[in-house]
Design a protein that fits this description.
The protein has a single domain, classed as Metallo-beta-lactamase, Chain A (4-Layer Sandwich). The protein is built from 7 helices and 11 strands. Strands 1-2-3-4-5-6 form a 6-stranded mixed beta sheet. A 5-stranded mixed beta sheet has the order 7-8-9-10-11, covered by helices on one side. Bound molecules: zinc ion.
Amino acid sequence: MRLTSDVHLVGGGTLSGFGVSSDFDAHCYLVDGGDEQILVECGMGTETGFRRVTGNIRRAGYDPAAITTLFLTHYHTDHAGGASVYREHLGLSVATGTATGRALEAGDHEATSFCRAQAAGVFPEDYSYEACPVDDLLPDGTQRSVGRLTLTYLDTPGHCGGHGSYLVEGGEQTYLFAGDAIFAWGKLHLQAIPDCDLQASLATVLALAELEFDSLLPGHGAIALHDGKAHIGMAKEAIDQLAVPPRLV
Ligand SMILES: [Zn+2]
């Protein structure tokens, strides 16, 4: 699904997305920098999900095997669970924040909360979230070029430990790939997991409100191609009134 000349939505489940891959997948985006394409998020990497995401990439006119890098915002299963599948089958590199990368490499599912999600019956019982080598650990502020575009990794903790977002500049618009840090209408996704930190999440909102960008591309739900900052502003307005912004679910 073409969003702009730079960005296609190639994955996302039916539960909180547009039903373009499999049930639990977060939104997965292809970013086209001209002579290089990357993915932001990969979803769970189930057989169906992988087939649909790669099919969507082909239908958008790209070769899945030519994608150079998978950038991940955080280690939750619906965003990153398929990283090993994509790395193995597409031969791409995996890049993410340092804490996320360490948990992924170790297959540390206390850290990723996969154990808790499985115990709660969130994901199918037979699903396995495999450890994945990480090729590029990104400290806060790290920049990478993607063809003609520049991608900047930003620490945006709160939803979980080590959560990051990506600011992509140099294209038709400036994009914020916000993962689960913030959603349309200024909503937050706060969960009963040990590394969810409300104060960190509120500080992240205030930091994101200082950025200049056009499109807010979150991990779930509505996408704002224009005036993305207005949605961050709604959350900031709540915080400025000492209120906690509304929750996504
Ligand atoms: Zn998450």
